[in-house]
Design goal:
Blueprint: H1 9-14, E1 40-43, E2 50-52, H2 56-66, H3 74-91, H4 102-116, H5 123-136, E3 143-145, H6 149-158, E4 162-167, H7 171-180, E5 189-192, H8 193-196, H9 203-216, E6 227-231, H10 234-244, E7 247-251, H11 259-264, E8 269-270, H12 273-282, H13 285-289, H14 293-297
Parallel strand pairs: 1-4, 1-6, 4-5, 6-7, 7-8
Antiparallel strand pairs: 2-3
Helix pairs in contact: 2-3, 2-5, 3-4, 4-5
């Protein structure tokens, strides 16, 4: 399911014009002169900026076979992972927070994934298998960067918008995965659940992002309603952000949502970041009166 990101005909057909966002002139001192109704935009990571190439079960099963273990049923392993992930999150919230490292947390989760799938792995084999999986998920072959995110970040930077990450994830995203995928250079701040000890939709994680933007970017008078959050989870991202006071857009890259229900509930839905640009543009007085991104995108 996650691998459909680049094959989505709606997204794929629109990405040809996304690079035209780069046409906006670079302005100086934009942090104090944002042209956007949202001086700050925060973004979720998995399912919004990046996706997996294939399922977790497929990667776990492949790693097991290479480690000499007969774990061929990737669907069973995928289901086992889903159970293990929920179980481990409940037992050790926020990827263990300050109780353990992210690597220790994932060691437990991986082991329980195979157990739930019905596979018995010896202690020595289990460690070798985990190290293989740990290395695999630290490599770029696992991930797919959504093609519209980098042009969007460039557009936001040139428009004077402070951008941040709010993610339910461990320190490896910040230290390894996102830099490896070249997704950190144009992002101003990062808020990860493991470091904060709280996770979306808890208002405290949105509070952490809000205070960070106020403190570090000269936005002391920033109001909550002037922050836009974008993510793919209705509960964690959309409701979490709205309940804190942010504006929010629900990302639906794979068109899984019931749009009639979303429309009835007043939920703005975007299929890609081009539609996020359109949403911001419609709320921007400057864009209506001057050089609207739509004029460039539709040219």
């Amino acid at each position: 399911k996650m691998s459909r990101a680049l094959s989505n005909p709606r997204l794929h057909g629109r990405t040809m014009v996304v690079p035209m966002l780069h046409r906006f002139p670079l302005r100086t001192n934009m942090r104090s002169f944002s042209l956007s109704p949202y001086p700050v935009v925060t973004v979720d990571v998995t399912g919004t900026m990046i996706s997996y190439k294939g399922s977790v079960g497929e990667w776990y099963s492949s790693a097991a076979r290479k480690a000499g273990l007969p774990c061929a049923d990737y669907e069973a392993i995928d289901n086992g992972f889903k159970l293990a992930y929920k179980e481990t999150c409940k037992k050790y919230p926020c990827f263990g927070a300050n109780m353990m490292t992210g690597k220790e947390w994932w060691r437990i989760c991986v082991q329980r994934s195979f157990e739930h799938a019905g596979y018995s792995v010896g202690e020595d084999q289990a460690e070798a298998l985990f190290q293989r999986i740990w290395s695999l998920f630290g490599s770029p072959k696992i991930y797919e960067v959504c093609p519209d995110i980098k042009p969007f970040l460039t557009w936001a930077k040139r428009r004077g918008i402070v951008t941040g990450i709010i993610s339910n994830s461990d320190e490896r995203y910040a230290d390894g995965v996102l830099p490896m995928l070249q997704l950190t250079e144009q992002i101003d701040f990062f808020v990860f659940s493991k470091k904060e000890g709280v996770e979306k939709p808890d208002p405290l994680i949105f509070e952490a992002a809000f205070r960070r933007a106020q403190t570090f970017y000269g936005l002391e008078h920033l109001e909550r309603g002037h922050v836009l959050h974008i993510g793919n989870s209705y509960d964690a991202d959309f409701l979490g952000a709205k309940n804190f006071g942010f504006d929010a857009i629900l990302m639906d890259r794979w068109e899984d949502l019931d749009l009639e229900i979303m429309s009835a509930e007043g939920v703005p839905v975007a299929y890609d970041f081009l539609e996020v640009v359109e949403y911001i543009t419609k709320k921007s007085t400057y864009a209506k009166d001057c050089c609207s991104p739509l004029a460039h995108l539709n040219s």
